[in-house]
Amino acid sequence: MMRRRATTFLFLTVASLLPAGTAAAQGECLLFDMQGKEPVYQSGEKVTYTISYTWGIWLNVGEVEFTTSLVKAHQKPFYYIEVNGKTYPFFDTFFKVRDYFSTKIDAQTLQPFYMQRTIDEGGYRRNSVGHYDRKREVIYSSTQRLDKTQPVKRDTLPLTPCTFDVVSIFYYYRCCDFSKMKLNTTYTVQLAMDNDVHCIRYKLYGVEVINIKGVGRFKTLKFSASLIAGTVFTGEEQVFFWVTDDENRVPVYVEAPIKVGSIRARIKTWSNLKSPLYMEDSKL
Fold it and tell me: What is the mean pLDDT of residues 148-176?
């Protein structure tokens, strides 16, 4: 019913394609100094999304849950972000997905220093880990197939201030000032995934009020971003996503075309947000 890794790449669009909040020349990536900046999220935050797929008709095939914890480590307190994605029991029969992403973010700089990606998709199982070394400006990555007997593949990836993994990029840019972006201007950011670094292009279109079925109406900021070419995407499509125009900067809706059909994610539930989530005609 779903092409291999369709769910993984949708998780990526939900978790990682939020734009930088700094005005820049076209194609550039400039960042704020986050040292000591209070994040817009807090420990205990949980947000869940419903995943839908269409090839003629829309079907709800699974969900993704994001959870945030503050770990008060002795030397360096950090936020531990975990993302769990799964197909619903009925669709497990056709293509079972159990995907896990995590990142550790320095509580002072809001920069990541660890990432993990473990996927189980229709029997295809893989684990990837990355350690950031900011002094040497590299990421030490290791990837291994788990469904086959294969050695661990190790690489050293280039690291810049604009390089993130698929989870930390989302939480970092939630804390940026979107008002400093120019409308319809292309920006870039680097995304480290497995043993490679990809360039993501994105732009801001402006304010739009959208209605999320079964949830309500939200005032949002609409963005688009390029997608990584691969099994699911050709590299020519754009994903569109809508982020709350409030203190939380939470994505509420994502839609992307794929080689066969389209995929969507819409917010389902949320709890323990740091600020009230603003909805048209009400505040929850």
Answer: 90
Query: What average pLDDT does the segment 3-23 reach?
Result: 41
Distance of CA 77 to the CA centre of its chain: 22
pLDDT of residue 281: 65
Query: How many domains does the chain contain in total?
Result: 1
Strand 238-244 relative to strand 251-257, pairing: antiparallel
Q: Take residue 206 and report the two structure tokens written for it.
A: 């402006």
Length of the chain: 284
Give the whole-angstrom CA distance, residue 253 versus residue 238. Answer: 14
Q: Is residue 1 part of a domain?
A: no
Banded pLDDT at 173 (limits 50, 70, 90): confident
Checking if the pLDDT of 276 tops 80, the result is yes
Structural domain containing residue 103: 6-283
Q: Which residues pair with 155 in a beta bridge?
A: 141
Query: How many other CB atoms are there within 10 angstroms of residue 184's CB atom?
Result: 11
